[in-house]
Structures
1.
Amino acid sequence: MAHRTEWNADEARAVIATHEDGGLLVVLNALNERFGYLHKDAVGFAAKALNLSRAEVHGVASFYHDFRERPPGRHVLKLCGAEACQSMGGNAIASHATRELGIEFGETTADEAVTLERVYCLGLCACAPAALLDGVPVGRLDGNAVSALIAEARK
Amino acid sequence: MSRRVFVARDAGAIAVGADRVAAAIRDAAERAALDVEIVRTGSRGLYWLEPMVEVETQNGRVAYGPIRPEDVCGLFACGFLDGGRHLRALGPTDSIPWLKRQTRLTFARCGVTDPLSLDDYRTHHGYEGLARALTLQPQEIVEEVARSGLRGRGGAGFPTGIKWRTAAEAKGDTKYIVCNADEGDSGTFADRMLMEGDPFLLIEGMTIAGLATGATKGVIYCRSEYPHAIATMNAAIATARAANLLGTRIADSNRDFDIEMRVGAGSYVCGEETALLESLEGKRGQVRAKPPLPAHAGLFAKPTVVNNVLTFAAAAWVLAEGAEAYKALGYGRSRGTMPIQLAGNLKHPGLFEAPFGMTLRELIDDVGGGTASGRPVRAVQAGGPLGAYFPHALFDMPYDYEAYTANDGLIGHGGLVVFDDTVDMAHQARFAMEFCALESCGKCTPCRIGSIRGVEVVDRIVAGIDREANAELLKELCETLKFGSLCALGGFTPYPVMSAINHFPEDFGLAREMAEV
């Protein structure tokens, strides 16, 4: 399970203070990593600390795929959907995962165990199809392996 | 005396169980009270043999693979510590034909050494390039790189020496060296392997670029999808600083250079150099119009060299071994070696570094061993998601920037993704447009909106609605994207789309003659 904490305004301000020298992207990455998403108040906090408009911060926050608007589940499964994984049956693996979890990409299961996300290339193209489960790489996936990953995450 | 066993710590090896294998070896050695030192290296790049286990014997290193955790007991039983016979024995590592056929310059150390050991790096000729660079005038470094014929390995193939010369001659109190490690192309993983397997080489190459251009600050922009590469680079940067190889008065010279690691946030277009600079400045990753060139006004409007990981790595080799040695290899105007990444549906996928000039037939049918599925090869996508799909009929063209361009394709960052005969090329064309729509930064209308229209047009062709007219429309749309977009995302998305329709018209329900009009 990833190391994340519940949204907390004081902690968010502290995270921003530690990272503000690096600029907005560094700040947003740090917030997204700590809390798993960008809370609606995060935009205002970052704007104030960096002397930017809320619109500028929102523009950046909404541009990058990594930044979530809602908290993810306890585990995040990122399945690669790029060409090298497609060539090894990646599309079938993707359907298998959505069917088994009962959700679409970008959604979280009702028990909040798993968030399923699409990524385009993990650099694991020579052991495709590939995925990252909470940052841990997994390769040479087939239906059974995906089921095992999901079962592990649901424990 | 302790016996040394080598298991990769590369993300690709970990993805297929290298950590579990290393743990099983450690446990088995403890149980048998054997003194075994496990060295976690980068990957040799023979991914179908990962997790690969190597042992140092009196006759050099011998390899076993692929090894599962449950195979480890058997390895000990057969005396693998002395190179014993085993079903999965591969013999002396250096004699494995797949490795032996390569010319490993950039990847000479990857898979051999402990990536975070500075001693290992130095023992294996590391920092020889920097040592030589420190004896040269900045101009001499630039000319050495220019003479080598090295071209940017990120995709555009621009001569590195000219880029460095431009930045060196630009006036500015602050200059930057930016490493593009936003390796987003599907089918490419050489940057990741190098950062995880030989991080000091990248640090050395960037430092040399700093000496050549007068820049004192370096930034590596790495994609967030590479957590292992980021961790390894951070550790290596800290080690280099502690050894006075980064920071002020590096290596007892009067020169300063330091490197900072920055992480992206999942945007493909940030691999384009100007979008990358915007992203580094904390903005949306939107492409800038050129001019000004980054070498004149790049990061924070200061003169900036932006090069790919492999370019800096090759430059370090050029300084160590000399421009002539590098230039002696290659084909036509493509000099030196290319770390070619064989990926997708292949029996033997992995990293194959070779001088330019090999044919796809050699690379795919011979080196790659044909498809993993055992079915015939139907198409190869060269150069990532913006690269063309080539049919078997074009498998004899040489691996060379100019030859690929002449065939409406690109070398790109050196990836080759192989598909067998179950591939639906209309689906692949649709995906190319879909990917462009998803990743477009929004700056240029043809890319932002044209890609969405492109998906719809492909859908109409596949559904059989006015097929010929829609195929004509798709071609016109591709022309608009190609000539109406600032960067390669909109400009090159037509390559996969048009190559799919031209070379595989039957998948779109089109007659061959029609497609060739």
Note: Chain B has four domains: 3-100, 118-327, 330-420, 425-516.
2.
Amino acid sequence: MENAAQFFLLLMLSPLVTGVIRTLKARLQTRRGPGILQLYRDLQKLFSKGMVIPETASWIFTVTPWIVFFSTILAGLMIPMVAAEAPLGLFGGVLAVIYLLGLGRFFLALSGMDTGSSFGGLGSSREMTISALAEPAMMLAIFTVAIGAGSTGLTEIAGTAIGQSWRFLAPSQMFAFAALSLVLIAETGRIPVDNPDTHLELTMIHEAMILEYSGPYLALLEWAASIKQLVLMTLLINCFWPFGLQPTWFGFGAVEGICWLLGKLLLLSCAIVLLETVNAKMRLFRVPELLAVAFTLGSLALISTFLF
Amino acid sequence: MRGVFPVIAELFLSGIVVWLAGAAASLALWRQPATARRVACGAALAGSLLDFAASSAALFSANPVFIGLPFGNPAFTCAVRLDPLSAFFSVTLAALASAVSLYSFGYLRCMEGRRNLGAFGFFFNLLLLSVALVFTASNAFFFLVAWEVMALVAYCLVSFEHEKKKARDAGVLFLIMSHAGTGLLLIAFLVLASACGSLDFSSFHLLASRLTPVQQGTVFLLFFFGFGVKAGVVPLHIWVPDAHPVSPSNVSALMSGIVLKTGIYGMARVFFDFYGTPPIWMGTVVLALGVASALLGVLYALMEHDLKRLLAWHSIENIGIILIGFGAALMFRALGQANLAALALIAGLYHTFNHAMFKGLLFMGAGSVVEATHTRNMEKMGGLIRRMPVTALCFLVGAVAISGLPPLNGFVSEWLTYQALLAGFGTTQSLTRLMFPIAGSLLALTAALAAACFVKAFAIPFLALPRSPEAADAREASFTMRAGMTTLAVGCIALGLGATWFVPVFDPITQQTLGVRSSSALVIAHGWALSPGRPHGGTISLAGMALFFLVAGAAFALPLALRWRRRTVRGPAWDCGLPGLTADNEYTATAFSKPLRMIFSALYRPRREIQAEYEVSPYYPSSIRFESEIEHPFEQRLYNPLRDRIMAAANRMKGIQAGSINLYLAYIFITLILLLLFGVRG
């Protein structure tokens, strides 16, 4: 039951979050923007269209969208969104979430190479490089959080955070939060690491891998990317600001919980938009420096767990 | 010798006999290659299955199974003992060897008439036999005999294609490194034997901890580096990337899957059987070198375009991951945390078994590909997924497993390792505890880089368009080769999904070495999920994940995919308006790893050279030559100077070897007098 509810929430809410971020960004750049419901319309249009699959592509190309989509959903079911208990918490905790997203990325990179076009290989190569470099920082931040909770289960991590509501102000938590935020930017392909709105050959990463997809499969991948963003944002906010997490999914509490979630997501979206607008995209070979900063922050987080 | 013992002993002995008979028969039949091949592979398979039955029964038998062999003399007995630790490694050997033997039926066919298959079958069976005896030898003497036989046989197999200079050089390097390691082991065993007056392993139990601290440390380092050579621990790894690629691929699968594990077995035996509570610095040394091996292994693998060399570097990486588990277990033991030590030991041993499965699988896949395309260079492959569908699928399973991605087996052991490292942070107040999270974050980097490397290792050979005529005409591997690969692919899947059934296998081992049984704490939720052994510590359920994928696939993906199929057309990929894409437009392996080569340039120190020739304008080159090379610091900075010193010293000593018989008689005479003097005075 909780599974179905959270499944539905992931599917339905994620395009809205993407839409809000795009619209806010447009407003900040004094543009009107396409409207917050645009991704729903895009998905609907793409699902009703036909597909062109490259002649060079193999079955890897056709199974990839499904693997990416379902592994992202499964990761999303392992995190607490509205109720403090993650619906599929038994299946895995924070490590499983990261590795499931890694599974999706592995296949996405393969399908980028499968088409035989240079763009796909370019995207795959960059995506795997950046995600690998983001990994140590992420793991340090996760270790900090998990050591505090004594667990890698997200239900327990959120539970510990609920027990001490103002704990996110502790230095270790602040550093871990900052490190994870930088990793989130790299993982979701946002400025200054990647630009989700561009199709310029020299700069694109995620878009280069999915360049040959069209129709329903493109819709699945766009949707999965949007769900992944929601999953990582929710992971970040519910590990550090667990306000408003409900004891169960049922009854009036769920409405309250969803409102809290939306509020927190809006706050984080504003921060992301602000960061995207005031920064320019980095040159690819400057990105390791950013991730080195994240790694330093992660180390500081870890050291502050026993210094303070 | 009551109850089930005689059965186990008989099964084990008949396995040994079958291997011996297979070796002898295939040598005798060397003039009939087809028969020799069938006899050799049949004997190897039968022996492996018998060994599998014996050692898996021994793993669960209440007391160690002791079998005296009918040769040797009273001073140096030849006997084997199947205690849980030996039985576990023996099971690993048997599981891998049966799949590789099956594969060899088809793989060796292409060598018929070109090579002496009788000799090959002889060495192949002897290798299995010697490895089995290394794992089960019950005293130091017999262990070293089996160890030497294994090294010599492995040398013959590495240099089997002896007309190639590379194969000969790799064999010699292996032999030198191996013997240097054996020398260290010999000293260490002699120290232990002199302390207790016996060569039997059972009398070494907990012995090392009773030595003086200096002796303890020396013995530990001798054993660690002695076994580390065989395991391929950085900086003793240099023979691995040379020896694995040049041997026939079924041998590579065994070398990487199990011969490296003899080093791991030795370490497990010494660290957890001979030592009681080792000082903590030993654990930190093992952990630190484990992390270094893991990271350097994968970083050099990324730069490799020779498919088999790439896999060989990954063996170093995986040995590193195993040692992270072992190092953590040693540290926990020093800190008095038996349950955590058990968790870390299980993580290391689980990864040992996993690595045997997926690395065997990948080397066999590489063997099929190399046989089909006649090259080991990935840049000349491509598009093989269409020509070799089964090989491609099996290789993909191996690639996902070795990258540690769920729901396959690599993820389970890496997850257990992370859990051990995570729990380690709270076990001590000293700064050593920072090692655990740092090791964890570098393990994460290693795993992510391994995923990047295997995107390359799968995508370049198997996907997109063929890059050479040979790749375009490649033919699928024969039935037995596919059967061998499929067996291990199924093993990788089963060890992932059935992790909760596999974990109780470690109970006898942790009971034997650490005195705890932890499977009841590790396996929770009616066998559905694994936990790190403490309540609310986090869980994973790979069977659950697989179930989710299956249900989602059957309920949504399949019907929708079938519906969308009607609206699908095939078209050319976007070619930027050029006249069609060719294989020349594809991303190459070199290009794929370019960003990492630039980011880690301080380590690689890449050198490149580009020469373009043009006739009219520099914008229209008629031919381009590109050369790129990276530095291997251990060889260039450490081993080359060392080799030069040794050669120089040998040159200087050449003077005493003048070739005259009178001089040699004089040497003997002088030695005799010196010895007599020594004897009289002492």
Note: The first strand of chain A starts at residue 51 and ends at 54.
3.
Amino acid sequence: MKCEDAAAFVSALYDGERIPREAAEHLGACEACAGRLASYSSIGAELRRVAILGEPMDLNGGVWDERQAVQSSWWRKSRESMRIPRFAFASMLGAILLLSGGLVMVRARPNTTGSVLWLSIKLPPEGKVFHSALATGGQPGSDGLGHFFHVPGGGTFSMGVRFLHRKGDRVELGVKARYENPSPDFSGPADDRLQGITEQSLWIEPGRNEEVSVPGLGSIEFAGDFIDHKPPSFFSPEDTVDPKADEFRIVSPVLIRGKEVVFNFGGASSMSSSRVSIYWPGEGRFLFSSAPFKDAVRGSAFESQITFNIEGQEYVLLTAVPATRATNVWIKHEPSYKPSEHSAGASDSEGMLGGESPSDFPKE
Amino acid sequence: MVEDRELWERIRRGEAQAFDSFYREMGPRLLGFLRQMVGNRQAAEDVMQETFTQVWRSPNGFAPERGTLRTYLFGVARKRAAEWWRNRGSADRGVIEERTECKTETASLVGDAFQRLPEEQRSLLWLREVEGQSYVELAQILEIPVGTVRSRLFTAREELRKVWHSTPPARKEGT
């Protein structure tokens, strides 16, 4: 064996690793390689000397507040928390699109032709992933998204993402993120939570993960891929049009009473729950379920329409996707319902769409 | 490993005292490592604080069967340091590197040459020479194969050896 072949093994031998017999024989007889070994030893000693001189004499203790055990599903909670304050969410989204500042970047896969970036965002502390789609064909700020979540251990995480630029298979996003503990008052303007937060530039490229650090919470991981259209469902772009068994889907609902439009709740959606409620200011709450429940009337579901009759008035609920596999659904109208009487901080002046708890649907 | 599991179980249960002990034991060493990675003490302290906070707030991030708690901690710290560099941008990087080139009482030619190595080689060499991490542990921290650890350590040492051999003996001794 020659010195140039044996050199790499000098480093391994110095580290106490096993090396081939042939290399060991060479190192024992070669003066040059013995000199290399001595050099490595001296360099190591010098680095350790630098380390000792640079070590702090003392370290202040950290402030480690008592952390509650993680008990419930972050994703489940986050979805629930997103569904309810729809108007707050919508106003936050609008505000996010107007916000400006610094930058954060994300990448995308080569040779892709799609114009929509399908983002997968992994959240601490449990590593749950949610998806969202952003159009990349417009001007900077032409598309964006906003989320806020209740964190299982306490506090609220808010995030805004907007499209900035696309260069080939790379997409630049502007990301704002904030963790607040204790949680802010939800009744205030949503965009307040991200005011003053510096927007980071994040370049996304398919096949690569990027991270954004959120002080006090941890790192959010971003991954992106291109798809050729923007999926109709905001929450689950990978879903098919066909609803799952026992799933009640309401997306951008419009309720018609006789010939009157009661509400047009574009952009709001609720999926996966078998029960749904819709609150609208001045109209109270409508409860929908695929199973009978107390004081509910039976209606009919066909594709994306639900028809029912309450107090002599014909109703049609239109949704953007087929609502349920069931043909019969049960509906209850609570005209005097006010969110503020049931949930602290809830607003009576905003529409709400959500999967409700079983207690709202007592059996007959 | 048993001690690791016991300590981690206490940390998972939210025992702040256990975590504080861990912080006091590992903090100075982690800070030394991060100073080499990010170039100045203030930034290193910030990244260290973020690292410990992440470990404290993400109790399920560590898997005892996959390595030691120390390995996990340094792995998190390295990612945090890389993230710090990304967020700083290229303009700030120049400023910080300039600062690290300033001579201090503790600096040495080897130390300066060390600073000019690529980030991954700096991590490898520091964790091996100062922290005494094994090749397997280094592979876990840097998420690279063990064979790559071996070859990159050799490359890094060769870079420093060139400096070492070009330096007069008196300078080597720090006089």
Note: Confidence is low (pLDDT under 50) at residues 90-107, 170-175 of chain B.
4.
Amino acid sequence: MLLEIKGLRVKAEDKEILKGVDLRVDPGQVHAIMGPNGSGKSTLARVLSGHPDYEVIGGEVLYKGRDLLAMDPEDRAREGVFMAFQYPVEIPGINNSYFLKAALNALKKHRGEEELDAVEFMALIKDKAKLLEMDQSMMTRSVNEGFSGGEKKRNEIFHMAVLEPKLAILDETDSGLDIDALKIVSSGVNALRSPDRAMIVVTHYQRLLNYIVPDFVHVLSEGRIVRSGGKELAHELEEKGYTWLEQGAAAR
Amino acid sequence: MSTSTDTIELLAQQEYKYGFATDVESDTLPPGLNEDVVRAISAKKKEPEWLLDFRLKAYKVWLTMKEPTWANLKIEPIDYQSVSYYSAPKKKTLASMDEVDPEVRATFEKLGIPLEEQKLLSGVAVDAVFDSVSVATTFRDKLATMGIIFCSFSEAVQEHPELVKKYLGTVVPHTDNFYAALNSAVFTDGSFAYIPKGVRCPMELSTYFRINAKNTGQFERTLIVAEDASYVSYLEGCTAPMRDENQLHAAVVELVALDDATIKYSTIQNWYPGDKNGKGGIYNFVTKRGICKGRNSKITWTQVETGSAITWKYPGCILQGDNSIGEFYSVATTNNRQQADTGTKMIHIGKNTRSTIVSKGISAGQGQNTYRGLVRVGKGAANARNHSQCDSLLIGDRCGAHTFPYLDIRNTSGKIEHEASTSKIGEDQIFYCRQRGISTEDAMNMIVSGFCKEVFRELPMEFAVEAQKLLSISLEGSVG
């Protein structure tokens, strides 16, 4: 098993947001986490990546059998945890490809692999850039600076393509995308599906899951997973809306 | 608390045990300043009469002057009578590198300073293999074949008095300001460079200087003259933690560029900044000015200021020759309790003169960083152009950045532009980097380097690399 979340409880600003989440993810699987606003979907994604704003008050998370929550964010990244941000941050003054090379080499160094020089790196990213229809200027501009919403999301998946994570967490990657950008991003993600890579796709809408078809769908409501199923669960949700589940949750 | 600051602190504590005030060796004047002291300095240096006169005039003017108070700096009063104004070069040497503090050695390692140079910087007796005097001589002989004079200021006074007499005090007059007057009265040594007509100095005047800069003292005087169509690039300073026994520094640098000449003057300043509570540290009051005397001449100041408790410094250009160009590129960092009030003066006099100002201020801890710049366009300076860019980067929420641009425009045919920005290294940026596998420290370095790159690219290559490392060391521990 790649990831095992057991009874995870998380607090932010004195408010309990996750109230006991359980999830098991094997390599090669794509899990979709759906849920209404405020259900805790993004919190789950950020806690897994090590965001400092959250406090874990219960439960545990094992990643490759190790205590993920005890690891620094950079160590999680180096061990193969990647998060595509819902709101990618702009970093003025740092060229996007330079940044990515620093990131990739940090990963390689951690794994005891040879670091890439600029020439090797440029060769490596050429194809990956094509995959996401990244234009040359997006490589040389500062990280996310002045990127449109769609460009930022494409850039996140481009980072993922280069860093080749074991566990990719996509936090509302579809938000703010028009249909064309959504298709590009989805085909990029699909190309990265592989038997030794797992993905957790966090989304509010079923639309994304038409393009990135999940193996499992989990519905998060008020900090708990209230329903799990196959990809058809997403369609059911689309038809009946989240209120259907919330009523169910309340009735439990 | 960062190790590097500890390092410098330890180094400084070690130094202050041997502070100048208690030095009783025969070649050191007792504390205090009066006319006899000025005469004694001149006599010890066997100076000609005209130079003694210069000093005495300056001393008399200094007596009538007051320290400037307009800077955005909080400074404890300085007792000028408790300072010794002449002290022979260091006598204390350590027997081997083993006696140097291991933390200091670690900092040297981080900066990649070669071993022999580490010894020089730490005051360890040096092997015959790497004798700085002989290295210097080799360089000097090579340069001399091209007619370039490069020597200490004292030597220049003895060997090239006509040149020194012709230019000394012509750019920074002894009446210029309190600290310049003080320097003019009591300066002990410094550097002199003269590039003859049509000669392009083939090397950075830097390697030599870095090695020899260690004893130039607190009242340093530098004069560089570039004759018609000559070129020189000069680098002052040292990226390693420098031994220094003096708290008060008041240097004067004068540059003279004649027709079609170019002078690039780069500084890396890393004096002891004081401890994190603001105790100790160098007071750095510097007057640096260049004159583009000839037409089409160019002077570029590049500075990376990371040290000193107080930095008061405005390297400027007098653009007298038509079509002359003045440039100022600056990175100033203040961490902990450091204060910097720095900037430039661009004085446009000739026609079609151009100036560029790029100032990058980085404040961390409780550091206070002030940019203060003057752009003056005289009546006759038709078509003058200036572009100023002042950017501030804040790290944490207890530091400050301030910008005081002054414009004095008396000819309206020109074009003056000023841009300013303030940004903050946010935790969200750091987290983004960490999520990609980049450590907090490396993320900081990347962001700061990105912020400073317009200035770093003006530095000679090898120093740009060191400046970057130095910056990261001086900001260590300021985030996360």
Note: The first strand of chain A starts at residue 3 and ends at 12.
